[in-house]
From TrEMBL:
InterPro entries named in the record: AH/BAR_dom_sf, F_BAR_dom, FCH_dom, GMIP/FCHO2-like_FCH
Cross-referenced SUPFAM superfamilies: BAR/IMD domain-like
Organism: Neogobius melanostomus (round goby)
Keyword Coiled coil assigned: yes
Keyword Membrane on entry: yes
Domain of life according to the entry: Eukaryota
Family: Belongs to the FCHO family.
Keywords: Coated pit, Coiled coil, Endocytosis, Membrane
Domain F-BAR: 1-226
Protein name as annotated: FCH and mu domain containing endocytic adaptor 1
Any one GO biological process: clathrin-dependent endocytosis
Length: 327
């Protein structure tokens, strides 16, 4: 029974060491997942780090769950160990009769050996006296002692056999009890080991599923998908920019001091949509005036741009502004 208690303690220590290994492995996988999450976000390979991170996180959870199952199993083993101690204590109390039978047999065996030695000694003494021709009284006295020793030896044998029978009965009952205890112990130990095996097997199945999922995720993310995702994240849009046209540099028309001019926009009188036409007579008069003004404006442009000596554009602008203000 002592070996049974020792086996229970050693099994608990073994499972505890396995739980510590699983905890360390889980922490290492969590650290690896963090490393994957800190991977470079640049380039087309960046999305693959998410696959590594998810896989490492799931593996960490699998081994963490196995550690918890191992701790639960350790509690079951310790609980069984406490029950085992109680059973052994109770069994020892029930085996008191067997212990007494063993002690009685040992004591009777000692008496039997002494009685046997005494009987043999008396027989040897009687034979010696007969060989030496000792007096008849001494021979008769030795015969009497030898006879008493033989009777005492016979009584010891009878008592020893009786005690031996009781010993065999007690030992048979005790051995049967011990065998039942050991069978129960081994049955319970196998049940605990079965729980350990199932927990380990479940974790291995989960780990296999995680690896299969990792493999599938890698296969599902094609090269075209990686490149397209990179283009969507780093691109500036799907529409092409418009073509750039040539813009003439108009420095002379810019207001001085870099301020925006609040004056009215340049407009040829009589050509705007807002000009009203009250009646047909005024419309004819205005049309003639605009026609004359337009001819004057055209002649002015010709005369300005054909002046020798340069500054044609400035003269044109000044003449144009003067004409607008007068009209």
């Amino acid at each position: 029974m002592k070996h049974g208690q020792l086996a229970t303690k050693e099994l608990a220590e073994f499972i505890r060491e396995r739980a510590a290994i699983e905890e360390t492995y889980s922490k290492s996988m969590s650290k690896l997942a963090k490393m994957a999450s800190n991977g470079s976000t640049l380039g087309t390979f960046a999305p693959m780090w998410d696959v590594f991170r998810v896989s490492a996180d799931k593996l960490a959870l699998c081994h963490l769950e196995l550690m918890r199952k191992m701790n639960d199993l350790i509690r079951d083993i310790n609980k069984y160990g406490e029950e085992q101690v109680k059973i052994h204590r109770k069994t020892k109390e029930e085996m008191v009769g067997t212990v007494e039978a063993v002690q009685a047999l040992q004591a009777q065996n000692g008496h039997l050996q002494k009685s046997k030695e005494g009987y043999h000694a008396k027989c040897i003494e009687l034979e010696r006296l007969k060989k030496e021709g000792a007096p008849q009284k001494e021979v008769e006295k030795a015969e009497m002692k030898s006879k008493k020793a033989a009777e005492s030896f016979a009584l010891c044998i009878e008592k020893y056999n009786r005690v031996g029978g009781e010993f065999e009965q007690k030992m048979s009952e005790s051995a049967q009890k011990f065998q039942e205890i050991e069978e129960t112990h081994l049955r319970q130990m196998k049940q605990l080991i079965k729980g350990y095996s199932h927990s380990t097997e479940d974790t291995h199945v989960q780990v296999g599923q995680v690896h299969e999922e990792f493999k599938q995720n890698v296969e599902n993310i094609g090269i075209d998908n990686l490149i397209q995702k990179f283009a969507e994240q780093k691109g500036t849009g799907k529409d092409r920019p418009a073509l750039v046209g040539f813009e003439e540099y108009m420095t002379a028309l810019a207001p001085e001091g870099g301020k925006k001019s609040r004056g009215k926009a340049f407009r040829i009188p009589g050509l705007g949509k807002r000009d009203k036409e009250p009646d047909s007579t005024s419309r004819l008069s205005n049309r003639s005036s605009r026609h004359a003004a337009f001819l004057d404006w055209t002649l002015m442009i010709k005369s300005v741009f054909h002046k020798p000596g340069g500054r044609c554009f400035g003269a044109f602008v000044r003449g144009l502004l003067s004409w607008v203000s007068s009209s």
